[in-house]
Amino acid sequence: MSRFHVGGKVVDTVDLLRKRHWAWRLDLWPFAVLYGVWLAAVVPSLDFSDASIVLGSIGAFHVLVFLFTIWSVDFKCFMQYSKLAASSTSLGTEEIFFDFRKQRFIYSDEQNTFFKLPYPSKETIGYYLKNTGYGTKAKIQAATEKWGRNVFEYPQPTFQSLLKEQIMEPFFVFQVFCVGLWCLDEYWYYSLFTLFMLFMFESMMAKSRLKTLSELRRVKVDSQILMVYRCGKWVKISGTELLPGDVVSIGRSTGLDGEDKSVPADMLILAGSAIVNEAILTGESTPQWKVGDPLEKAALKGIEWSYNSDEKAMLKKEDVLEVLDKIL
């Protein structure tokens, strides 16, 4: 059995596939046989016009199969891949994983399935209050290998790749097919002009998408130097080197020309308070006041609270600074 049930919000099931050799792909060798049969049997028995019609039919069917491998992932897997046996997952590999939509899923031999790479984001308040960051360089190295750097790169496609994606859409292919039929009419030059307009429109759409992606790449947190508690002391590191579980000190920029600081990651306020601007995330223009210390928060709300009584409480969204928030 090569199917694994993940049960996540993004990925439900996972099938293990292996790419076929090009000579055994179902979108290649059957058509090679058909072309060979056409050349050996059809051409000698029919005249040139009839043989050309047969060749055109085979070619049209081949093109349609090729397009379906682009339009349908399931069809592409059926044509170009073969399923792996269950025993193929135990190949002595240290770790089997895949990345999907910027999320990593790791194979577990014990559970015999894939699970999303866990983060320490659902612990109790007491756990976070007692956290002192990473105490040794070995732990830092292990965490870096597990989670990687604190970067989120938007892919920057080329204009040619976007245009190719646009013209491979089913509706555009149908339009080109219709233009081809119109070319059989007497006014074929009108059809060619229509085809030119179609390509111009798709080029403009690809250019617009490229501009949007370029603007999206600018909306990211710039790398900044932060004070992080590691190995028993405060050290300065780049925001791209942050790891889950780090204890970070964030303050507002001083001076008259001090700019608002963008939060480089989702963070829980452990001590102190912060006024943040969440307009880029929520659209609210009113800054939000967030308090970290549970005792201070309880006093502001007029309720009684102690660390022992609520140590097992879970963190709430109002305690969290999210990436792209700005400290005012």
TrEMBL record:
Q: Which GO terms describe its biological process?
A: intracellular calcium ion homeostasis
Source taxonomy: Eukaryota, Viridiplantae, Streptophyta, Embryophyta, Tracheophyta
Task: Please give the PANTHER family that the UniProt record associates with this protein.
Answer: CATION-TRANSPORTING ATPASE-RELATED, ENDOPLASMIC RETICULUM TRANSMEMBRANE HELIX TRANSLOCASE
UniProt domain P5A-ATPase transmembrane helical hairpin: residue ranges: 20-83
**Residues in P-type ATPase A domain copies:** 227-290
- GO cellular component terms, semicolon-separated: endoplasmic reticulum membrane
Which positions carry the signal peptide feature in this UniProt record?
Answer: none
Question: GO terms for molecular function, please?
Answer: ATP binding; ATPase-coupled monoatomic cation transmembrane transporter activity; metal ion binding; P-type ion transporter activity
Q: Where in the cell is it found?
A: Membrane
Give the species this sequence originates from: Buddleja alternifolia
Q: What is this protein called?
A: Manganese-transporting ATPase PDR2
Q: What is its main location?
A: membrane
What kind of membrane protein is this, topologically? Multi-pass membrane protein
- One of this protein's Pfam families, by short name? E1-E2_ATPase
Membrane-crossing ranges are 28-46, 52-73, 188-206
| Keyword list, A-Z | ATP-binding, Magnesium, Membrane, Metal-binding, Nucleotide-binding, Translocase, Transmembrane, Transmembrane helix
